[in-house]
Amino acid sequence: MIENHLPTAELQALDAAHHMHPFTDGDGLAKKGARIITRASGVWLTDSEGNEILDGMAGLWCVNVGYGREELAEAAARQMRQLPFYNTFFQTSHIPAIELAKKLAELAPEGMNHVFFNGSGSDSNDTNIRMVRRYWQVQDQPGRDIIISRWNGYHGSTMGAASLGGMKGMHKQGGLPIPGIVHIDQPDWWSEGGDMSPEDFGLMRARQLEEKILELGPERVAAFIGEPVQGAGGVIVAPDTYWPEIQRIVDKYGILLIADEVICGFGRTGNWFGSQTVGIRPDIMTVAKGLTSGYIPMGASIVSDKVAAVINGSDEFAHGYTYSGHPVAAAVALENLRILQDEGLVTRVRDDIGPYLKAKWESLTDHPMVGEAKIVGLMGSIALTPNKAKRAKFAAKEGTVGFITRERCFANNLVMRHVGDRMIISPPLSITRAEVDELITRARKSLDEAYARVKDEGHWAEAQPAA
Ligand code: PXG
């Protein structure tokens, strides 16, 4: 452990000189200097200045069991000593991959008994693109290669995964989406629902899938992909009518359903998988993040018997990564799943800490700047608005008020992120009631300070509806 590290300013200068950060304006960060995290325990981060920060995001939605679990370090060390690497190509296997595949089949919904291992969420979704196209090709339908996805969904950052994603800013930076991927609108009632009831709006947005299938021709559509609850898009929870209608439509046209569980998986929504929470029956589930609680990188595609039978029953599926099923990552994943299970962390989200946080989170709607509060399990969002009744947007550029609020959270040692003008949380599943209280206290204080600042800076004004 580097306790006696360089002064923060020197670390920041070196960081700016040599480290290119993901999703970051490099010059902007260089001027300001990165916050440097040096250690963590439970839900608490420590930075290089000795500040104790409450991590309301579980790292990047991933540290489900919390920081500092010795058992995971031990599992990695043990596995490194015994077999640090071997591949799973060329008709070989190893015990951690075998055990983890069996364990995931046990935890996954019925009929999902097969696992293809990947290195991250992004390359799991690349695997999924290739697997569903292969699935139809083997069945003499090679023209069935289009995957339908949603605007403002997030599926990762590789060429394939960013194409599946519906982040227009990402598409703009380099020829995306790749061919064969089309998008429909998201079920975000707060910002796009207009005068419709949430229920009618949910149905309307789901039926866009059917319209798109009919427009393209069902014989061209391979699969639909969606996150049970959109995470990076701002913790968007679909109206109750949405997912049953999606399930009806994919069933009707025989289209594969891919649930991207990278955030929702492993207890985040109060069940092992978000698919169970929203009541869908996927053919493939993308997992990563909570699979290892972020202690080591790993992703996987959990595959139904139906899809696996086709893929396994044909010639070689020409796809795989050096680190598919990496033994150290698999050993850490197994230990992580043991902790989640033995400590009842998933049921705790559903029955105890989830409902506790929900009540407190929803109470934030009494704040003058907070419109709706949404929460499923331990992933929540609040919409910031200058006029709740009208669900109005701010006149200032989208994200201005969210950014001001996030800065206040930062100053109050709370990690609560913003996506546009929504604030989001996703704390470790191990968070205690006292820590939830502290999170809410800091969030309220930050909201109060942001509200004052927004007024001071002249941003307390509604956008006028487009003429
Ligand atoms: N699918 C979903 C649903 C995700 O949330 C990925 C795939 C890609 O996983 P990898 O492991 O390749 O990053 C993700 C990742 C954010 C943020 O700012 C979210 C993610 C990643 C980075 C930032 O909310 N989610």
Question: How would you explain this protein's 3D organization?
Answer:
The protein has a 7-stranded mixed beta sheet, with helices on both faces. A 4-stranded mixed beta sheet has the order 1-2-3-13. It has 18 helices and 15 strands. With 467 residues, it is α/β, with parallel strands linked by helices. The longest helix is centred in the last third of the chain and has 24 residues, at 433-456. 42% of the residues lie in helices and 15% in strands. Helix 1 (8-18) runs antiparallel to helix 2. Helix 11 (242-253) links the parallel strand 7 and strand 8 (256-260). It folds into 2 domains: 35-65 and 347-456, Aspartate Aminotransferase, domain 1, CATH 3.90.1150; 71-342, Type I PLP-dependent aspartate aminotransferase-like (Major domain) (Aspartate Aminotransferase, domain 2). The chain has helices at residues 8-18, 26-32, 58-61, 70-82, 95-107, 121-138, 159-164, 168-172, 189-192, 198-216, 242-253, 274-278, 305-312, 327-342, 345-351, 353-363, 400-411, 433-456, and strands at residues 37-41, 44-47, 52-55, 114-118, 146-150, 181-184, 221-226, 256-260, 284-287, 299-303, 370-376, 379-384, 414-415, 417-419, 422-425. 3-[O-phosphonopyridoxyl]--amino-benzoic acid (PXG) is lined by residues 60, 120-122, 125, 154-156, 227, 231-232, 260, 262-263, 288.
Write the layout of secondary structure elements.
Elements: H1 8-18, H2 26-32, E1 37-41, E2 44-47, E3 52-55, H3 58-61, H4 70-82, H5 95-107, E4 114-118, H6 121-138, E5 146-150, H7 159-164, H8 168-172, E6 181-184, H9 189-192, H10 198-216, E7 221-226, H11 242-253, E8 256-260, H12 274-278, E9 284-287, E10 299-303, H13 305-312, H14 327-342, H15 345-351, H16 353-363, E11 370-376, E12 379-384, H17 400-411, E13 414-415, E14 417-419, E15 422-425, H18 433-456
Parallel strand pairs: 3-13, 5-6, 5-7, 7-8, 8-9
Antiparallel strand pairs: 1-2, 2-3, 4-10, 9-10, 11-12, 12-15, 14-15
3-[O-phosphonopyridoxyl]--amino-benzoic acid is lined by residues 60, 120-122, 125, 154-156, 227, 231-232, 260, 262-263, 288.
